[in-house]
Design brief:
By secondary structure, the chain is an all-alpha fold. The protein has a single domain, classed as Arp2/3 complex 21 kDa subunit ARPC3 (Orthogonal Bundle). The protein is about 85% helix and about 0% strand. Helix 1 packs antiparallel against helix 6 and helix 4 runs parallel beside helix 10.
Length: about 220
């Protein structure tokens, strides 16, 4: 079994399984253990695919910088509900550093920024949502780089997907059990948030993707990343 397949299985099967099992096994503080497990598993695909070369320090530094930018961006726009640059930063990181890096930046952005916004069961869903958005962006990287239209569509769909995943948590909030009725209600009542977040993703991607991408291309060429 090659490294890529293992890393994909961890992201697409392992992490969802941990979240599902965690919320049915652990007690009152279950979200703490689940969040830590998801954080550890987020690192695993990145470390599996990581190859130690001369540029390794620069590469790791860039991943850390993108994670920090994502967290700072979320804090900077904390007063503006549903208008955040997190997804845009995660997508750009994924486009230039791969799906594993995208998942890692997305997952850690949620975990670290929630030390300010507040940790809770919702943290795990945010980690998974932003992580998967980054992972898929990494898989579609070449196509997203070539077309601003496709990038905008992906940004809008990412906002919708993020909101729909968070609504799973809202549907489970009352008793920890999923209910389709509560889920439909959550989706319906959060339409404004979904639309605004989708729009914000498109705006930030159109503003940031090309300028940052050009700089990253130069850095990658200079350091052989």
């Amino acid at each position: 079994m090659n490294k890529r397949l293992i890393s994909y299985l961890i992201v697409l099967v392992g992490i969802p399984a941990v979240i599902a099992l965690g919320f049915t096994v652990f007690a009152e503080v279950k979200y703490i253990y689940v969040a830590l497990a998801v954080a550890a598993l987020s690192l695993a695909p990145f470390l599996i695919r990581f190859e130690k070369k001369d540029h390794s320090v620069t590469y790791l530094l860039l991943i850390a910088v993108f994670t920090a930018l994502s967290v700072i961006g979320r804090l900077a726009f904390s007063a503006v509900q549903a208008f955040k640059p997190v997804t845009a930063v995660v997508v750009i990181a994924a486009m230039y550093f791969g799906p594993e890096a995208g998942f890692l930046v997305g997952s850690l952005s949620a975990l670290l920024s929630n030390f300010y916004f507040g940790q809770g069961p919702w943290t795990v869903f945010q980690m998974a949502a932003w992580g998967l958005v980054g992972f898929l962006a990494g898989l579609l990287a070449e196509k997203l780089k070539q077309s601003l239209v496709l990038l905008s569509v992906y940004g809008a769909l990412s906002g919708m997907a993020y909101s729909l995943m968070l609504d799973v948590w809202h549907a489970m909030y009352a008793d920890g059990l999923f209910s389709w009725g509560r889920y439909v209600t959550a989706v319906t009542t959060s339409v404004w948030f979904t639309v605004m977040y989708a729009i914000s993703n498109v705006v930030f991607l159109l503003l940031l993707a090309r300028p940052i991408g050009k700089k990253l291309d130069r850095i990658k060429t200079k350091y052989g990343i």
